[in-house]
Amino acid sequence: MNAVKIQVYCALITYCLVAIVANKLKVERPIYEILQVLGISLLDKASVNEILTEHDYKNAKELNYKQLKIRWE
Fold it and tell me: Is 39 in contact with 60 (CB distance < 8 Å)?
């Protein structure tokens, strides 16, 4: 039961933090779409402001040029 509570609290905290960031940056996207964009761009070197305001995420090829490479050694 505690694990479920922790997951619910983490989801609520994440939602609230993203809502605060979206409000501060004046992003005109729905919170759900912002969460998807942030999930896609976890390995992106760009700032959050640049990610949320300047990119067109309907074209996924745009993300390739700044994405970090994962090395298996």
Answer: no
Tokens 């992003």 belong to residue = 27
Query: In sequence order, what are the beta bridge partners of 44?
Result: 67
Angle, CA of 11, 39 and 35, to the nearest 5°? 55
Q: Please report where in the chains the tokens 């809502």 appear, as a residue.
A: 19
The pTM score is: 0.61
Give the CA distances from residue 70 to residues 13, 44, 50, 51, in Å, rounded to whole numbers and listed in that order: 29, 12, 22, 20
DSSP code at position 70:
P
Average pLDDT, consecutive stretches of 10 residues, N- to C-terminus, the chain (73 residues) = 92 92 86 86 80 62 57 66
8 Å CB contact between 27 and 51 = no
